[in-house]
Protein backbone atom coordinates (compact mmCIF):
# COMPACT_ATOMS: atom_id res chain seq x y z
CA UNK A 1 0.00 0.00 0.00
CA UNK A 2 1.70 3.21 -1.12
CA UNK A 3 -1.21 5.62 -1.61
CA UNK A 4 -1.52 6.94 1.95
CA UNK A 5 -0.92 10.67 2.28
CA UNK A 6 1.07 11.76 5.34
CA UNK A 7 0.30 15.47 4.94
CA UNK A 8 -2.86 16.46 3.14
CA UNK A 9 -3.21 20.01 1.77
CA UNK A 10 -6.51 21.77 1.08
CA UNK A 11 -6.69 25.19 -0.52
CA UNK A 12 -9.33 27.87 0.05
CA UNK A 13 -9.95 31.39 -1.17
CA UNK A 14 -11.19 33.77 1.54
CA UNK A 15 -14.67 34.71 0.41
CA UNK A 16 -16.57 37.93 1.03
CA UNK A 17 -19.04 36.14 3.32
CA UNK A 18 -16.10 35.06 5.52
CA UNK A 19 -15.09 38.68 6.26
CA UNK A 20 -16.12 40.49 9.45
CA UNK A 21 -16.56 44.22 10.15
CA UNK A 22 -12.76 44.58 10.66
CA UNK A 23 -12.10 43.45 7.06
CA UNK A 24 -10.43 40.18 8.01
CA UNK A 25 -11.68 36.63 8.27
CA UNK A 26 -14.23 36.04 11.01
CA UNK A 27 -12.95 33.63 13.68
CA UNK A 28 -15.71 31.11 12.96
CA UNK A 29 -14.44 30.70 9.39
CA UNK A 30 -10.97 29.67 10.57
CA UNK A 31 -12.67 26.75 12.30
CA UNK A 32 -14.85 26.16 9.23
CA UNK A 33 -11.79 25.98 6.93
CA UNK A 34 -10.05 23.53 9.28
CA UNK A 35 -13.15 21.30 9.39
CA UNK A 36 -13.54 21.40 5.61
CA UNK A 37 -9.87 20.48 5.21
CA UNK A 38 -10.24 17.55 7.61
CA UNK A 39 -13.38 16.40 5.77
CA UNK A 40 -11.46 16.46 2.47
CA UNK A 41 -8.55 14.52 4.01
CA UNK A 42 -10.99 12.00 5.52
CA UNK A 43 -12.72 11.46 2.18
CA UNK A 44 -9.32 10.88 0.58
CA UNK A 45 -8.53 8.24 3.21
CA UNK A 46 -11.92 6.53 2.84
CA UNK A 47 -11.50 6.44 -0.93
CA UNK A 48 -8.27 4.42 -0.75
CA UNK A 49 -8.64 1.47 -3.12
CA UNK A 50 -8.14 -1.09 -0.35
CA UNK A 51 -10.58 0.55 2.07
CA UNK A 52 -13.99 -1.08 2.22
CA UNK A 53 -15.52 1.35 4.74
CA UNK A 54 -17.00 4.53 3.28
CA UNK A 55 -19.65 5.21 5.94
CA UNK A 56 -17.29 5.97 8.83
CA UNK A 57 -17.47 9.64 9.85
CA UNK A 58 -15.67 11.90 12.32
CA UNK A 59 -17.19 13.76 15.25
CA UNK A 60 -15.12 16.45 17.07
CA UNK A 61 -14.33 15.63 20.68
CA UNK A 62 -12.18 18.67 21.59
CA UNK A 63 -10.32 21.37 19.71
CA UNK A 64 -7.49 23.82 20.32
CA UNK A 65 -6.90 26.82 18.07
CA UNK A 66 -4.24 29.53 18.01
CA UNK A 67 -4.61 32.64 15.88
CA UNK A 68 -1.25 34.05 14.76
CA UNK A 69 -2.17 36.43 11.94
CA UNK A 70 -5.18 37.48 9.88
CA UNK A 71 -6.54 36.14 6.63
CA UNK A 72 -7.91 38.81 4.31
CA UNK A 73 -10.47 38.93 1.51
CA UNK A 74 -9.50 37.07 -1.68
CA UNK A 75 -6.34 35.59 -0.16
CA UNK A 76 -5.57 31.99 -0.95
CA UNK A 77 -4.90 29.95 2.16
CA UNK A 78 -3.52 26.43 2.42
CA UNK A 79 -4.49 24.11 5.25
CA UNK A 80 -2.01 21.30 5.92
CA UNK A 81 -3.43 18.39 7.93
CA UNK A 82 -1.44 15.72 9.80
CA UNK A 83 -2.86 12.75 11.72
CA UNK A 84 -0.53 12.13 14.65
CA UNK A 85 -2.37 9.88 17.13
CA UNK A 86 -4.81 7.02 16.73
CA UNK A 87 -6.84 4.41 18.59
CA UNK A 88 -9.88 2.35 17.60
CA UNK A 89 -12.29 5.02 18.91
CA UNK A 90 -10.77 8.06 17.19
CA UNK A 91 -7.75 10.06 16.09
CA UNK A 92 -5.91 13.33 16.68
CA UNK A 93 -5.08 15.76 13.88
CA UNK A 94 -2.81 18.81 13.75
CA UNK A 95 -3.50 21.47 11.12
CA UNK A 96 -1.67 24.60 9.98
CA UNK A 97 -3.26 27.39 7.96
CA UNK A 98 -0.75 29.24 5.80
CA UNK A 99 -0.65 32.22 3.50
CA UNK A 100 2.35 31.58 1.25
CA UNK A 101 4.94 30.40 3.81
CA UNK A 102 3.48 32.31 6.76
CA UNK A 103 1.54 30.31 9.35
CA UNK A 104 -1.56 32.33 10.24
CA UNK A 105 -3.42 29.83 12.43
CA UNK A 106 -2.82 26.42 14.00
CA UNK A 107 -5.41 23.93 15.07
CA UNK A 108 -5.47 20.61 16.86
CA UNK A 109 -8.43 18.38 17.47
CA UNK A 110 -9.32 14.98 18.78
CA UNK A 111 -12.18 13.29 16.95
CA UNK A 112 -14.26 10.18 17.55
CA UNK A 113 -15.39 7.77 14.85
CA UNK A 114 -19.13 7.56 14.23
CA UNK A 115 -21.66 6.41 11.64
CA UNK A 116 -22.06 8.49 8.51
CA UNK A 117 -25.20 10.07 9.95
CA UNK A 118 -23.30 11.04 13.12
CA UNK A 119 -25.77 9.23 15.35
CA UNK A 120 -23.81 6.35 16.83
CA UNK A 121 -20.28 6.25 18.18
CA UNK A 122 -18.37 3.16 17.14
CA UNK A 123 -14.95 1.71 16.64
CA UNK A 124 -12.93 1.93 13.47
CA UNK A 125 -12.84 -1.19 11.31
CA UNK A 126 -9.48 -2.95 10.91
CA UNK A 127 -8.93 -2.01 7.24
CA UNK A 128 -9.35 1.72 7.91
CA UNK A 129 -7.37 1.42 11.15
CA UNK A 130 -4.45 -0.15 9.24
CA UNK A 131 -4.50 2.67 6.67
CA UNK A 132 -4.52 5.25 9.47
CA UNK A 133 -1.78 3.42 11.39
CA UNK A 134 0.55 3.64 8.40
CA UNK A 135 -0.14 7.37 8.11
CA UNK A 136 0.55 7.95 11.81
CA UNK A 137 3.74 5.82 11.64
CA UNK A 138 5.15 8.01 8.90
CA UNK A 139 4.04 11.39 10.29
CA UNK A 140 7.20 13.14 11.40
CA UNK A 141 5.92 16.65 12.07
CA UNK A 142 7.24 18.36 15.19
CA UNK A 143 4.18 19.28 17.21
CA UNK A 144 3.96 22.38 19.42
CA UNK A 145 4.34 21.60 23.13
CA UNK A 146 0.81 22.80 23.94
CA UNK A 147 -0.88 20.16 21.74
CA UNK A 148 -1.41 17.49 24.40
CA UNK A 149 -1.63 19.89 27.33
CA UNK A 150 -5.28 20.18 28.38
CA UNK A 151 -6.62 23.07 30.41
CA UNK A 152 -9.69 22.42 32.51
CA UNK A 153 -12.08 25.28 33.24
CA UNK A 154 -14.63 24.74 35.96
Task: Kindly describe this structure.
The mean pLDDT is 85. The chain is 21% helix and 36% strand. The protein has 154 residues and is of the alpha+beta class. The protein has helices at residues 27-46, 126-138; strands at 7-13, 56-67, 76-87, 90-99, 102-115. The protein is globular and about 45 Å long. A five-stranded antiparallel beta sheet has the order 1-3-4-5-2. It contains two helices and five strands, in the order βαββββα.
Task: Write the topology of this structure.
Blueprint: E1 7-13, H1 27-46, E2 56-67, E3 76-87, E4 90-99, E5 102-115, H2 126-138
Antiparallel strand pairs: 1-3, 2-5, 3-4, 4-5
Main pleated-sheet profile = 5 strands, antiparallel
Overall geometric form: globular
Annotation, overall tally of beta strands:
5
Overall mean pLDDT score? 85
Task: Tell me the structural class.
Answer: alpha+beta
Task: Offer a quick outline of the entry.
With 154 residues, the protein is α+β, with helices and mostly antiparallel strands. It has 2 helices and 5 strands; from the N terminus they run βαββββα.
Give the tags:
single chain; 154 residues; alpha+beta; 5-stranded antiparallel beta sheet; 2 helices; 5 strands
